[in-house]
Write a structure and sequence with these properties.
The structure is a single chain. This protein is mostly helical. It contains eight helices and no strands.
């Protein structure tokens, strides 16, 4: 047995390239990473803006910590309402305008269809409210106290037109920011959406009620507003459009009845 003194050399020429295994994908993990579908938790600055607006709003409208008895009887109630609504509207526009405007992006696709859906939902809510009240009260159902106050202001006050603007446009924006954008959009980072949405719907209806019977008038619209917000991928602009549509139709009907 002999050994070849000139063993064959291993060629590394381009004709016989050497294959190397593909590198493994790099996996980066962070302790505070959140899924893309999870809502972003508010920053400290966000909580500051929420507190400056939300605490006074909740104290005034939900908790009743500012009783109406402190307002002198000589003051015009419509003027007081316009002044209070103006303060909260300025706060909303100052703190949340960019977040509100950005959610109009929901209308980039099929805008006419989505607007038509709002009119259809309004009709459904109106029918549900009417049938519910007729079933409970009969052919002459009472008007909810909050609605009666609005009717009185729009039909007898010299500030009816400015008040109509706030009822139709300004107040819906303030309420949508608080009840939908904050209570659902922000707090859903800490609790299930269905839970905070249910709380939001109940609080919105409760805020408009002066007696428990008024829930019949406000709970349907509250539930639909909540569903509109959630199913529009939390577009507060879209829920505001539905809210403003509902209130604008109400204001138009009141003015039409007054003219008639």
């Amino acid at each position: 047995m002999t050994t070849d003194p000139h063993p064959a050399e291993i060629s590394l020429s381009p004709q016989t390239p050497t294959e190397f295994p593909a590198p493994l994908p790099t996996v980066t993990t962070t302790a505070d990473a959140t899924p893309a579908s999870s809502p972003t938790r508010p920053t400290r600055a966000d909580w500051g803006r929420i507190a400056i607006f939300g605490i006074p709003y909740a104290a005034f409208f939900l908790l009743g910590l500012v009783p109406a008895s402190i307002i002198p009887q000589s003051w015009d109630l419509t003027t007081v309402n316009i002044a209070i609504d103006s303060v909260f509207l300025v706060m909303v526009l100052t703190f949340f305008w960019r977040e509100f405007a950005s959610t109009f992006s929901y209308l980039r696709t099929h805008p006419l269809l989505k607007i038509a859906v709002l009119f259809g939902l309004w009709f459904v809510v109106a029918v549900v409210q009417l049938v519910s009240r007729l079933a409970i009260y009969g052919i002459n159902p009472p008007v909810a106290e909050n609605q009666q106050l609005v009717i009185d202001a729009l039909t007898s006050s010299r500030l009816a037109l400015p008040f109509a603007f706030f009822v139709a446009v300004g107040v819906p924006l303030v309420e949508e920011i608080f009840y939908r954008h904050i209570l659902i959009g922000k707090l859903s980072a800490y609790a299930p959406t269905w839970a905070v949405a249910s709380i939001s719907a109940l609080l919105f209806a409760y805020m408009h009620c002066h007696q428990w019977q008024d829930m019949i008038a406000y709970l349907p619209i509250s539930i639909v507003l909540t569903l509109v917000y959630v199913f529009s991928r939390k577009s507060v602009a879209y829920s505001w459009m539905f809210h403003a549509l509902n209130n604008s139709i109400m204001v138009a009907l009141i003015f039409a009845m007054q003219g008639a």
